[in-house]
Amino acid sequence: MTEVKAQLRYLRVAPRKVRLVADAVRGLPVQEALDLLAFARKSAAIDIRKLIRSAVANADQKGGIDVDNLIVKTLFVDQGPIIRRSLPRARGSASRINKKTSHITVVLEEK
């Protein structure tokens, strides 16, 4: 079985939000996953759709792989670095705001 991989790093969306979309398309055929992501109402769906299309382009470029028979073998989301910001609060204090990032990896496989 031939595998093709694509990664998206430092996406400025929290991993917990991205995992909701990733769980929906894991294990589906590529065309079905792209159709589902086109109508998903989550902002992370746009980025995952672009990533899957990139992996398909990688498969096409690699050669010897039938692009129509690809399935999403694995799709996982890891946490990237946290961007820390501060927000001024009462009496001269400050609270911390954590802006989380995600690393997304997709592996496609031929049926």
Characterization of the model:
The chain is of the alpha+beta class. It has a single domain, classed as Ribosomal protein L22/L17 (Ribosomal Protein L22, Chain A, Alpha-Beta Complex), CATH 3.90.470. Helix content is 35%, strand content 36%. The chain is built from three helices and five strands; from the N terminus they run E-H-H-H-E-E-E-E. Helix 2 runs antiparallel to helix 3. The longest helix is centred in the middle third of the chain and has 19 residues. The radius of gyration is 17 Å and the shape is elongated. The relative contact order is 0.30.
Task: Name some characteristics of this structure.
111 residues, alpha+beta, Ribosomal Protein L22, Chain A, two-stranded antiparallel ribbon
